[in-house]
Amino acid sequence: LHDALPISSDRRHILGFTVYLGYNGKCGQGGGPSFKVKTGSIALTSHGSFTLKTKAAGPVASVKPVPVRISGRISGRRASGNVVDLSAFKCSNGANPYAESFTAQAK
Fold it and tell me: What is the rounded CA–CA span in Å between residue 22 and residue 32?
């Protein structure tokens, strides 16, 4: 989902995070709109982990923003984690249809 994740020189913050979260097909055919997740700074713990709850914007003004959680870890120059729509219904198999994993290079 990300090519590079900008990290502050003191390695205490991610300086910006942008990703699109769309229907992942885990409930079968169908789907819904994609949401744009864009943040400012995200704090990193001393162990390189991060979590942020924010809102993701819909593709048009008539689609209300949804709450999402961004979480992950940076280890060396590799970042990985998840973006999850907290309001999404669960599929009959228990999966969240708006949940994605990501990997990126920390720069």
Answer: 7
Q: Is the dihedral of CA 68, 10, 8, 82 positive or negative?
A: negative
Instruction: Quote the tokens at residue 73.
Output: 């870890």
Residues in contact with 48: Cβ distance below 8 Å, sequence separation at least 6, in sequence order: 11, 73, 74, 75
What is the residue-level pLDDT of the chain in tens, covering all 107 positions? 456 788 999 999 999 888 889 888 888 887 777 898 999 999 999 999 999 999 998 888 888 889 999 999 999 889 999 999 998 788 888 889 999 998 888 87
pTM value is 0.86
Q: Whose structure tokens read 């709109």? A: 33
In sequence order, what E strands does 1-107 have? 4-5, 13-14, 17-21, 35-39, 42-43, 49-56, 66-75, 78-85, 99-106
